[in-house]
Amino acid sequence: MSETQAAPGTVYLVGAGPGNPELLTVRARRLLDSADVVMHDSLVHDDLLGSVPESTRLVDVGKRPENGERTTQEEIHDLLVEAANEPASVVRLKCGDPTVFARGGEEAEALAEAGVDCEIVPGVTSAIAAPGVAGIPVTHREHASALTVVTGHEDPTKPESALDWEALAETVAAGGTLSILMGVGKLPENMAALRAAGLDPETPVAMIERATYEDETVVTGTVGTIVDRAERADISPPAVTLVGDVVEVREAIDACVQSLGRQLVTTGQYSQIEGD
């Protein structure tokens, strides 16, 4: 069997990238073309799912909090082990990178415990790709020498939060960049936590919704204004929130990056809502 083909009895934890199918890695593409089973998240692009061979069994194991439908993580573990033991070659397809807030580590542990071979295939994480295609570099010699990626889904007011908002605010104030994933629903609380931790309300913020899709939307503002602007723009998941001075770089390269964005998306549509 070719080393680029998916091997029976093996589970491949594959990153699908930030959205657009053209941002898939070569390794991921080859594995999708030869897999027996593909178990995918709900946010994986329809065009990508439609590109796999007709003989491939597609299994939707996504979670849809808006309507209560979900496949539990334990069920996903069981499905992966069961399929691998058929034996089948299984691609577990996740948005972004499988190890960045995608539970790839948990699934790898479950597979190891069950004695199932697995391989982790990195993907382009939206934490970096979303701001990048919107013209915002997450690091820049004149603006940011550090990048912190956090989940925005956690409640910042809970007593035992795993996030140190004071430390995050200090990092941004010192010139770092904060990339927040899955933070649309908690945006008001997250921005309030940063302000309470001492971050200047004038610190630049951008939100990139559905990065690399045909309906990609970019909203810019500040820690003090982004909540109102995101609400007016009706920003909804999936979206990445970027906090830090690097957001201002977008103004200098705006025209160039918009052209690149139009090449990346399917229909050439690109919308943006800038700060006042």
UniProtKB/TrEMBL annotation:
It is an enzyme of class 2 (transferase). InterPro entries: 4pyrrol_Mease, 4pyrrol_Methylase_sf, 4pyrrole_Mease_sub1, 4pyrrole_Mease_sub2, CobA/CysG_C, Siro_Cobalamin_biosynth, Uropor_MeTrfase_CS. GO terms for biological process: methylation; siroheme biosynthetic process. SUPFAM superfamilies: Tetrapyrrole methylase. Homodimer. Residues 10-226 form the Tetrapyrrole methylase domain. Pfam families: TP_methylase. It comes from the Archaea. Keywords: Methyltransferase, Porphyrin biosynthesis, S-adenosyl-L-methionine, Transferase. This is uroporphyrinogen-III C-methyltransferase. GO terms for molecular function: uroporphyrin-III C-methyltransferase activity. PROSITE patterns: SUMT_1. Its EC number is 2.1.1.107.
